[in-house]
């Protein structure tokens, strides 16, 4: 088989290596000039931690490496990594260890990693004006719908926005002239948003209250692909309709000694059957989906190794390279019902 034996010398080492804890990405919409921007980083762990600045342009990421001592803090000026006013991301090598805060003149923003296509911003009583900064995390155009509600849950006003490119920011000052208690934002694909209110621009972070509903096809069988421990970078879903391939996947669940690497092809978009990350806090769908499973193999080429989160992070590059995945650590771990895939809620095994 084409994907067999080319990595015999190295696959054993990588599969036996210690499993790293997941990385985490934090997002900052472009609402501040680099000259007025400062990033503050706090390391809460007892170990040194690695992190990177990430500037996105045309699907390419320019990264700047940083390392922070245990139980310490550092700051970085915006002009040290940003060429102009734009959105960017910050990557922590280990999740739940670093706290990223930025200041823009006197405004302070705590960065979060929320990427769900459906979020809510809650606002205190007597708020009538809200400032919103929204960052498109999808490679192509993305449509957003914004709805403002009062304390009784009545719809006050709604707006629609359209993004045309990846990592585009849109800033909106929304004057409602009536008390608003929450703003709900939904989109066709991943985005990140921040909301501010009051004279001193207090922050209302995005909350993904429940996983977004996704389309399913009851004629297909679904399987969760993950590592054996939940600390790796993401999990993903495949759908199968070939009886022989379905039987092979089920056999690997029943008999772990038969587990194999999944060699598959991916495409941009959620597709007719969406793909979500069940390990993420918000269970957000990925910007890509598995279009075809080529094989279950003992070995696979190193060029298509990685993990689902890394594919999302560098999706344009992976698509340019042919759109093939073969994550060495990942296996079929369970069969999913259409409801589990659609709702993002796993039943007890």
List the topology elements:
Elements: H1 8-16, E1 24-28, E2 37-43, E3 49-57, E4 60-68, E5 73-77, E6 88-92, E7 98-104, E8 107-110, E9 118-122, E10 129-136, E11 142-149, E12 155-163, E13 169-175, E14 182-187, E15 191-197, E16 202-204, E17 221-226, E18 236-240, H2 243-254, E19 261-268, E20 288-297, H3 308-313, H4 315-320, E21 324-325, E22 331-336, H5 338-343
Antiparallel strand pairs: 1-6, 2-5, 2-7, 3-4, 3-6, 7-8, 9-14, 10-13, 10-15, 11-12, 11-14, 15-16, 17-18, 17-22, 19-20, 19-21
What's the overall average pLDDT, rounded? 91
Kindly, what is the distance between the CA atoms of the first and last residues, rounded to a whole number of angstroms? 34 Å
Helix content: 10-25%
**Biggest β-sheet strands, sense, barrel:** 4 strands, antiparallel
Percent of sequence in beta strands? 35-45%
Order of helices and strands: HEEEEEEEEEEEEEEEEEEHEEHHEEH
Q: Count of DSSP E strands?
A: 22
Poorly predicted spans: 1-20
Structural class: mainly beta
- Strand arrangement across the biggest beta sheet: 1-6-3-4
Number of helices: 5
The dominant shape is globular
Number of separate structural domains: 3
- Radius of gyration, in angstroms, nearest whole number: 21 Å
């Amino acid at each position: 088989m084409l994907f067999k034996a080319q990595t015999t010398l190295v696959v054993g080492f990588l599969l036996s290596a210690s499993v790293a804890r997941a990385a985490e990405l934090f997002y900052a919409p472009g609402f501040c000039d680099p000259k007025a921007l400062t990033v503050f980083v706090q390391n809460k762990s007892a170990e040194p931690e690695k992190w990177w600045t990430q500037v996105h342009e045309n699907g390419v990421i320019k990264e700047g490496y940083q390392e922070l001592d245990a139980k310490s803090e550092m700051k970085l000026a915006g002009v040290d990594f940003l060429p102009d006013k734009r959105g960017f991301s910050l990557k922590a090598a280990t999740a739940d260890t670093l706290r990223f805060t930025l200041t823009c003149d006197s405004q302070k923003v705590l960065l979060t990693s929320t990427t769900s296509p459906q979020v809510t911003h809650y606002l205190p009583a007597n708020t009538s004006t809200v400032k919103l900064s929204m960052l498109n995390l999808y490679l192509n155009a993305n449509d957003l719908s914004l709805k403002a509600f009062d304390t009784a849950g009545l719809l006050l006003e709604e707006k629609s926005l359209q993004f045309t490119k990846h990592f585009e920011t849109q800033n909106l000052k929304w004057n409602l002239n009536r008390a608003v208690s929450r703003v709900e934002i939904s989109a066709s694909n991943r985005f990140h948003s921040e909301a501010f209110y009051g004279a001193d621009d207090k922050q209302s972070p995005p909350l993904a209250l429940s996983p977004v509903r996704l389309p399913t096809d009851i004629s297909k069988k679904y399987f969760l692909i993950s590592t054996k421990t939940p600390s790796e970078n993401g999990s993903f879903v495949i759908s199968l309709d070939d009886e022989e391939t379905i039987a092979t996947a089920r056999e690997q669940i029943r008999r772990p000694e038969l587990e194999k690497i999944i060699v598959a092809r991916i495409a941009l978009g959620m597709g007719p059957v969406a793909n979500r990350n069940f390990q993420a806090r918000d269970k957000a769908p990925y910007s890509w989906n598995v279009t075809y499973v080529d094989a279950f193999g003992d070995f696979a080429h190193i060029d298509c190794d990685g993990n689902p989160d890394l594919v999302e992070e560098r999706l344009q590059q992976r698509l340019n390279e042919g759109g093939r995945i073969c994550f060495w650590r990942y296996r079929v771990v369970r069969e999913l019902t259409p409801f589990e895939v659609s709702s993002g809620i796993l039943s007890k095994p």
